[in-house]
Amino acid sequence: MKCRSCSKEIPATAVHCVYCGASTSSTSNQSQQSYNLGSLKSTTPATRGKRFVNLILDGILINILTSLLGTVGIRYLLGEHGYWTSWLINWVAIPFAYYFVTELAWSKSPAKFLTKTRVVTDKGFKLTASQVALRTILRWIPFEAFSFLFAHRPVGWHDRFAHTKVVDDR
Length: 170
What we know:
Strand order of the largest sheet: 1-2
Number of domains: 2
């Protein structure tokens, strides 16, 4: 079939034109913001290697943030009585804010900037706040970080249940 917007040939099952990003349905959903899929060279999931590098780099950056903001800052402000507050900020607030803010604003964590990958919905749209929040909360499931390593495709539980995927962004 041909795209109504750019007139290029696209697969009959396509939801969006891979060249210009236009919707192929007759009624376009204006509430969802779509990326210009023509700017993405690939809409296939990122490799396991890139996903693993994202995991390691984001982990290092979160540890740096928790060391500076959580441990040093809270302990300095609250003294020894701030142990549980420090724990809550280090293990919950900072990691949640790290992923929520960056993936909502740019659809990328800092590690994804380096590996040139991006998070999109299963259909190629920009993530909603509830999808980003769900992805972030699901990361706390024990051993979830390794779920994408052993799956047929490199899709982790936080991707599967939030209906998202990480794609190359080159």
